[in-house]
Hypoxanthine phosphoribosyltransferase
Amino acid sequence: MKNREKSENVENGIVKVLVTREEVEKTVKRLGSEITRYYDEKETDLLLVGLLRGSFVFLADLVREIKLPLMVDFMSLSSYGDGTVSSGDVKVVMDLDTSIEGRDVLIVEDIVDTGNTFSKVIRMLKNRKPRSLKVCTFLNKPECRIVDVKIDFCGVDIPNEFAVGYGLDYAQKYRNLPYVGVLDPEILEE
Ligand SMILES: O=P(O)(O)OC[C@H]1O[C@H](OP(=O)(O)OP(=O)(O)O)[C@H](O)[C@@H]1O
Ligand code: HPA
């Protein structure tokens, strides 16, 4: 089968599953409980900041597992202009709508890879004087870290392979897979 035909069927482009649908569900529930427990002890004014586009699937599931009043806002940053390699040059494409001054902000990501995106957004949001600033990611690739970032709520550690699904894309595709998989290297080379 030709690569083009393969890539038209998303399931066919996947060579290995890294996080199954069941593991996704368990992980999101665990993170929801941890976050609920952490903020529950304080008088919280919780704002979840989702980083577009990758976090939208995880964030939609996560908010339903957090048993606290909260608000949601989004930012869009871009770092992977050419596909699979981080340029290290993170740009703000769309900023928040809301002021975060004096609020408890939880940044939500689909993946921390080099750490460039998180470190940039943390620096930027700290300047806006939130009461607290924590970070949550569904996936973590510790082997790829270039910039050190402290992750407060971490889903699953994965190896150094290009992951797609559950919000993560390759060339804007595969975000709709309900699990996380590794893409066929032939497709990456196309
Ligand atoms: O730790 P890093 O090396 O910075 O990589 C992580 C970032 O890369 C991806 O975003 P991307 O720029 O691909 O945009 P997307 O969210 O729209 O997929 C991902 O969603 C994270 O935001
Ligand atoms: O493994 C990845 N997959 C998709 N997007 C990404 N952005 C950083 N790392 C990845």
Q: What stands out?
A: The CA atoms of residues 10 and 144 lie 26 Å apart.
